[in-house]
Each structure stands twice: as structure tokens, then as C-alpha cells.
Amino acid sequence: MSDRAIHILTDSFMKILLPGLKVTLPLTAIAFSLALVIATVVALIQFANVRVLKQIARVYIWVIRGTPLVVQLYLVFFGISGLGYLIDPFVCAAIVLAVNEGAYCAETMRAALEAVPAGQMEAGYCVGMKYHQIIRRIVLPQAMRTAFPPLSNSLLSMLKDTSLVASITVAEMFMAAQRIVARTYEPLLVYAEVAVIYLAFSTVLTWLQHFGEKRLNRYQRAKA
Amino acid sequence: MLEIKNIHKTFGDAQVLRGVDLKVEKGDVIAILGPSGSGKTTLLRCMNFLETADSGTMQFDGEHFELGKMKKRDIARLRLKTGFVFQNYNLFLNKSALQNVAEGLIVARRMPKQEAYSIAERMLEKVGLSDRAGYFPHQLSGGQQQRVAIARALASEPEIIYFDEPTSALDPELTGEVLEVIKHLAAEGMTMIVVTHELGFARTVADRVIFMENGVVVEEGSAEEIFDRPAKERTREFLRMEWKEN
Fold it and tell me: Cβ-count burial of A30 within 10 angstroms (0-12 exposed, 13-18 middle, 19+ buried)?
């Protein structure tokens, strides 16, 4: 490897990593937490069969899953800007990512809720518990265990999808890389570098997943 | 104490209950026998509102209820007086044995945790499972799970406990330990209705035996009456078949 290449790599490393730590990771954390809240609410609405709201939930999932994330980002950011309102790109990105991932996670959560045996509800009723108490203390914890691996998938997807928000002017990790490429004309080198940093982030999240599964497994038979 | 009159229930086209009456006095142990599809489990589930009966009345501690149009609040209130033991245990899978027993006390009855856990410990001791308090359901045998389920039903000091085929999901060598627990409760004077296929058990424990078929009570009487000198040919036939299988 040439001295120049090494110099570019070392010089750009912190310039890519810092926006990663300051923007990519917080954006992922905020958007995914919001997505989980949306997903839980939307899944519970369907699980509990709440009239009207259930129809709204289905339309939401249909629209979000049926349109590309980039289009959603452009639509909201440039659409609102175009109307003459100022909108913070980071806030916009967090909301769009959350609403987008929320639709996918809602389906994951719904499937997990439906996988909890009906007898759990009945047993709850028979010891005098109310619907919301059974959901909160018995059904949701069991559903979370089932949903945990696919939700971890969604988290990883989102981490990588944050690279798309560069297109609505959020100065995250990928935008930093693009800028360095524009200056150095070393796309292979710099994009490989940013890929490795994404991989490092993903690896940490995967560890966290294993750790989380172990904790949740204490009340579940280990699957052969 | 508890009286059901003229209860009806249909699932689609199937008439599962066609006018069943049932009277329970305090301290009674009633066994309900009958072939599968006779409606005995549905009767029990309607009595605890896990199924909604189409019509019929219930008298509970002097209060009168129309089973077809129960209010949520009344259902919640009545369930606090009853316990239910399921065929497949239905222990809360995310709770330990001790938590399973304490959960209803803490959540439904708003009992302080410490008090609830000390009651739960006593209940587990009663079913012989003190040493399994911290175990999760998947770490227990079927018989142990069912005994925890009985402890859970007992914890709230119900006026009556319903047992829905409590040993039908168990291996034969595990049914004994569960029946033993139920026998103890009977000896202590607990009011119970037990839907069961265990004829020997019904005979020794039940004060009264009800034989159901096709959604109606075919015959009802003391254990001796039903087992030693059944009046109806259908009852005789059923008992003959069942004894042979056992």
C-alpha cells in the first residue's frame, strides 16, 4: 500500500468515525426506539382488534411498505421545505426512519403477539387480571422474546439505512466519506473504509443481540 | 351457593349445551363425566365466562345473573371468587412457579408483594413443591406444572375451584401426584367441580357425579348411585366402555 493511501486512510478515519458516533449511532438509537413504540402500538391495535384504528394501522403499513425509503425521505424533507417551512434534516430523518421501520416492526410484533398461546390470556383472566394487565405482564414479555431476533435484524437494517439520509443533507458517516472521496479521488479506498466502520458498528450490535437473547432465554426452553 | 339453570351454548350449528342445570353447595365435590363432545368442558368454561353462554341464569352467593348478558364488571367480580385449573396447565411461561402463584394476588388483588410471596410459598408447600419455587414452567414436569397451577388457583382463597380435565394431558405415572393434591383439597372441604375421565378418582372423591352427553345431563346422583346402580342404560354403557379402557 502506498504512503499516500495510508495517509488518506489514517487522515480520513476520524473524519468518518466521528460523524458515525455523533450522528449515525444517535440517529439509529432515536429512530429505532421511536419505531419500537410505533410498532408496539400498531401491533397491539391489531391484536386487540380495535375498530377503525385497526383499518388505519393496515393502511399505514400498506403505504409505508409499498414505497421506497428514499422516496419517503425526499417527500417529507424536500416536500416540506418546498412549502416554505424550515425543517431540521436530522429531526426529519429520525421521524421518517422511525415511521418507516415502525411499519415493518409492527408486523414482527403482531406475529409475535399472535404466537403467544391463547391459554395465557385465559389463565390471566382466571386469576382476576384485566386485559391490559395480562398484555403488559404476560403476553408482551413473551412476545418480545419471540420478536427479539427479527427486531435485531430491523435494527441492523436501520443502522445501514441511515446512510440514505445523506441525501437529505444530514452530515452522517456516509456523507463524510463522500466528501473525502470528492477531495481525494480514492473511492475504492474510502468507501471500503466506511464499509468497515459500518461493519464494526453492526458487529457490536450483533454481540448485543446475543447478550440480549441469553438474558431473555432464562424463561424459555432453549430451541434445539 | 352456586346454581346454574337452563344454560344453552351453540358453536355455529353445533348445540353444545342444551339446557343444563347444576347446583353446588359449599363443600361439594362434583365430578362431571361424559364422552368427548358431551359439552362438559364447555359447561365449565361458560361458568367462568371463558365462553359466553347464549342463555341461562346463574345464582352465586345469592346474586342473580343472566349468563347471556353478563357485564364485564360482574365477570371480573365473580372470577375473584373462583379458581380455574386447565387441562394444559397454562402457567405463565415468563414467570417462575412462585411468581405464577403470586401474580394474581399482586396484580388483581393489589396485595403487597411480600405478603403475596409468603402466601405463594405456603401454597407451593401445600402442593409439595416448595423446592421448585424458582423454577420456570419449562423446567418442571407436567405433573409439577399442574400442581403449581392448582397452587395458583388456591392462592386467592376461592369459594370454588373448577378443574377442566386436570390430568388428561399427563403421562399416566404423573396423574397420581395431581389427583393426590385434589383429594387433599376435598378432604379440607374445598368446593370443587372436576371434569374428568378418571373414574376411580371420581368414585372415591366426588360427593356427586354428573353424567353428560350431547349437551344435556343424562344422569346425576351420588357416586354410589352412578357407579353401582346407574338408572340409565346410556350411563351403564359409558361406564362399561370407560372401565375397559382404564
Answer: middle
A157 in any annotated domain: yes
The cell numbers describing B32, all together, are 362431571
Q: Tell whether B88 is within 8 A of chain A (Cβ).
A: yes
Using DSSP's 3-state secondary structure scheme, residue B92 falls into: coil
Q: Classify residue A19: in a domain, yes or no.
A: yes
Provide the whole-model pTM.
0.89
Q: Are strands B55-60 and B2-11 parallel, antiparallel or unpaired?
A: antiparallel
Residue A122 lies in a domain: no
Query: Residue A97 pLDDT more than 60?
Result: yes
What pLDDT was estimated at residue B246?
64
Per-residue pLDDT tens digits for A198-210: 999 999 999 999 9
Q: Do A123 and B76 touch (CB under 8 A)?
A: no
Nearest CA in chain B to A130: B108
Q: What average pLDDT does the structure give for chain B?
A: 94
The answer to whether residue A71 is domain-embedded is: yes
pLDDT of B226 above 90: yes
Q: What's the CATH code of the domain at A79?
A: 1.10.3720.10
User: What pLDDT digit, counting tens, does each position of B76-102 carry?
Assistant: 999 999 999 999 999 999 999 999 999
Chain A residues within an 8 Å CB radius of B91: 123
Q: Is A38 within 8 Å of A98 (Cβ atoms)?
A: yes
Q: How far is B204 from chain A (nearest CA, A)?
A: 28
Q: Does B239 touch chain A (CB under 8 A)?
A: no
Domain that holds residue A194: 3-115+129-223
pLDDT tens by residue, B175-208: 999 999 999 999 999 999 999 999 989 999 999 9
Of the CA atoms within 13 Å of residue B238, those in its CB half-sphere come to 24
Instruction: Give the A window 133-152 contacts with B, CB below 8 Å.
Output: 133, 137-138, 141-142, 145
Q: Give the per-residue pLDDT at A109.
A: 97
The number of domains in chain A is 1
What residues does B210 pair with on adjacent strands? B32, B220
